[in-house]
Design brief:
The complex is a heterotrimer of chains A (253), B (93) and C (330). Chain A contains eleven helices and no strands. Chain A is mainly alpha-helical. Chain A has a single domain, classed as Ferritin, core subunit, four-helix bundle (Ferritin, Up-down Bundle). The relative contact order of chain B is 0.18. Helices cover 65% and strands 2% of the residues of chain C. Chain C has one domain: Ferritin, core subunit, four-helix bundle (Ferritin), CATH 1.20.1260. The N and C termini of chain C lie far apart (54 Å). At the A-C interface, helix 1, helix 2, helix 3, helix 6 and helix 7 of A face helix 3, helix 4, helix 7, helix 12 and helix 13 of C.
């Protein structure tokens, strides 16, 4: 399993998370709870595939050897994927999907806000463009969390169950990381030390309005996407997503 | 009966233009109506501003009122600049 | 054509002399190409026919997302994924534009959708065929959207204002759908492996006849056409549109280097059109009746989406009501 330099790994973490999350959104096609939601979810999905492509293109340039964005998306195995464990989790009901969406949006929002001021101009540019999109995503998912949390008894219960299902994967959003600290001290990206606190503050705010309880801090998990230790769900997701490229390696699409 | 409320959507396509009616969306409140309208009617960069209003709140003229309401203005030609003939020496006015 | 057999409720088209004053004024407006708007007087059958036609069209857009949804999770490159996602999203959007036009006639969207789910409303037969390889995404865009465009372009001039305006918007947005589909196929034929070329031919073989059926029964079997044409909610007959589609598609087929599964297809110099073989109308009527390859799956998916989402829609309403009460109290 190839391990790239810190910056490339960081770019893959951003790109893989966006793509895997978008792939889950694609699974909702024709199945959303309202026709208006088909539009909304697909808009978010389109933004995220676009973001993934931007991060991948930069990563591919750094890797060289003819790798391009599509090779990164469609020809790597699960052990090489660096996406947040949260986004690879199955969609479940709309409450689970929106909870994943909201946790991810809040993480992206604060991360991209910081990355706008990266010493690396390419990162700063992609972050600035993506942040506009993510600001809207966060607004949308926050509203849905409030509607479902403070809607009917049933929706409230479903939200509590959804939070219980995915909360354990949020440890990745609040853990300090050595390679990112190294990138920050060499001035490539700004310090991300405040990120966990900012993420939690957003979750607290929205959950308060939604009459939902924020669980205790998640304990560190045995798995971690940073080392390619995923849940079993990712492999199946990739098998579907990568099918054509894997089955017909000589083809041009 | 629809579960959600019908809202009419008006979009300003460019700065300096009026908002123009484009269609409707279903939503539970005005805030959601704005977002649904954004996702539906501005996918191709068609807008800089959106208004929404519950369809039920709009009052329209009835078709049998057309003649009394609009025909009387037909013969008021003196409201139009072309009614006034001025000699060429005046130039553009 | 997305609305294949629309009942007009009239046996014979009335002449102006047979009409009462309101209906005559209405028909004269239509004859003069003046648009009918929501608040204008209109015959009850015109309203009902339009509701049926526009809702069938809208249902087709929504059900039409499913065959493509079958491949959106398997699109082979990021570019293809983005294109397909955008196309499917447009279809949801077009469904919504059309429902919105339909609601100006006093129909209720949820009620009309319920008719679809209970099998009382139709949608285009084409979406009851399975998509079995990636080339289907190309063939659907090229043939199915192509056939839809042939039908929709004249409908931009349809007599009902809101429908006409929705069609203008849809046609403008849909111009990329057919090109996108054709480009998928052309790329596979020009740059692909033999296996990929075989996929393209296979997709065309399966989708060619169902695409021709999209235009609906032949004119001799279309008892409602005369009234629809008089009302200008249909601007050309089924056979005219089908011929137009074939004539414009065959040169594109030849450019691809593919064939269609019709031994009788040949250029008729005298007519200035292509001749083509007999359509299997038995199959068409069976699919329309609900016995096509995917009818059950398509409707079940849509029914489940509505049922599974009920608690979400209810919660959103409940939350909005709470907020309104809080604001009123404050």
């Amino acid at each position: 399993m190839t391990k790239y330099d810190d910056l490339t790994e960081f770019l893959l973490r951003l790109g893989d998370s966006a793509l895997v999350h978008a792939q889950r959104l694609c699974e909702w096609t024709g199945r959303a709870p309202a026709l208006e939601e088909e539009m909304g979810m697909m808009n978010v999905g389109l933004d995220l595939v676009g973001q993934a492509r931007n991060w991948y293109e930069y990563a591919a340039e750094r890797i060289g050897d003819g790798t391009d964005a599509d090779t990164l998306a469609f020809r790597r195995d699960e052990r090489a994927f660096r996406n947040l464990l949260l986004v690879e989790q199955p969609n479940g009901d709309f409450a689970v999907t929106m909870t994943k969406q909201f946790f991810y949006d809040a993480w992206q929002y604060h991360l991209l806000t910081a990355l706008q001021h990266s010493g690396d101009e390419r990162i700063a540019a992609i972050a600035t463009k993506s942040l506009k999109e993510v600001t809207y995503h966060l607004r949308r998912s926050s509203q849905w969390i409030e509607r479902l949390g403070d809607g009917t008894d049933e929706s409230h219960q479903r939200m509590e169950k959804a939070i219980d299902t995915v909360w354990r994967f949020t440890f990745e959003m609040v853990e300090a990381n050595d390679s990112e600290s190294a990138l920050a001290s060499s001035g490539v990206i700004p310090s991300l030390a405040d990120l966990p606190e900012q993420w939690l503050a957003t979750v607290n705010d929205v959950f308060r309005n939604a009459t939902l309880t924020v669980p205790d801090a998640p304990s560190t998990f045995y798995l971690s996407a940073r080392t390619g230790m995923h849940t079993e769900h990712l492999g199946i997701l990739l098998a579907e997503m990568q099918f054509l490229q894997r089955a017909y390696p000589d083809a041009s699409w | 009966m629809s579960e959600w409320t019908l809202y009419e959507v008006f979009i300003r396509s460019k700065h300096g233009l009026n908002h123009k009616h484009v269609g409707s969306v279903h939503a539970v409140d005005a805030e959601m109506a704005i977002e649904n309208a954004r996702d539906l009617y501005t996918r191709r960069n068609e807008g800089v501003s959106i208004w929404v209003a519950p369809s039920a709140a709009i009052t329209a003229t009835a078709s049998d009122e057309k003649e009394p309401l609009f025909d009387p203005s037909e013969d008021k030609v003196y409201r139009h600049a072309s009614f006034y003939e001025l000699p060429d020496e005046v130039g553009h006015m | 054509m997305y609305a294949q057999q629309v009942e007009t409720g009239t046996k014979a088209v009335k002449s102006l002399a047979e009409m009462g004053p309101e209906e005559r004024a209405f028909q004269e407006k239509i004859d003069a190409e003046i648009k009918i708007e929501a608040k204008n007087w209109m015959p009850d059958n015109y309203r009902k026919t339009l509701i049926r036609q526009i809702s069938q069209h809208a249902h087709s857009e929504i059900v039409g997302m499913l065959p493509e949804g079958n491949w959106v999770t398997r699109a082979p490159t990021l570019k293809r994924k983005l294109q397909l996602m955008a196309k499917i999203q447009d279809e949801a959007g077009h469904g919504l534009y059309l429902y919105s036009a339909m609601e100006t006639l006093g129909a209720d969207r949820d009620e009309e959708i319920e008719k679809l789910h209970s099998g009382r409303a139709k949608y285009s037969s084409i979406f009851n065929y399975p998509t079995l390889n990636w080339a289907d995404m190309g063939a659907v865009g090229w043939l199915v959207d192509g056939a839809a465009i042939v039908n929709q372009v004249p409908l931009q001039r349809t007599s009902y204002g809101p429908y006409s305006r929705a069609m203008i918007r849809i046609c403008k947005e849909e111009s990329f759908h057919q090109r996108q589909g054709y480009e998928i196929l052309l790329h596979m034929m020009r740059h692909g492996t033999q296996v990929q070329k075989d996929m393209v031919q296979d997709a065309i073989n399966r989708l060619w006849w169902p695409s021709l059926m999209m235009f609906g029964p032949s004119d001799a079997e279309s008892p409602n056409s005369a009234q629809s044409l008089a009302w200008k909610i249909k601007r050309h007959t089924n056979d005219e549109l089908r011929q137009r589609f074939i004539d414009q598609t065959i040169p594109q087929l030849e450019l691809l280097g593919c064939t269609v599964p019709d031994p009788d297809l040949k250029w008729n110099e005298e007519r200035g059109h292509y001749d083509f073989g007999e359509i299997q109308w038995d199959e068409f009527y069976e699919v329309l009746k609900g016995n096509g390859p995917c009818n059950r799956e398509r409707l079940e998916t849509r029914r489940n989406a509505t049922q599974d989402g009920a608690w979400v829609r209810e919660a959103a309403v409940a939350h909005a009501n709470k907020k309104q009460k809080q604001q009123a109290a404050a």
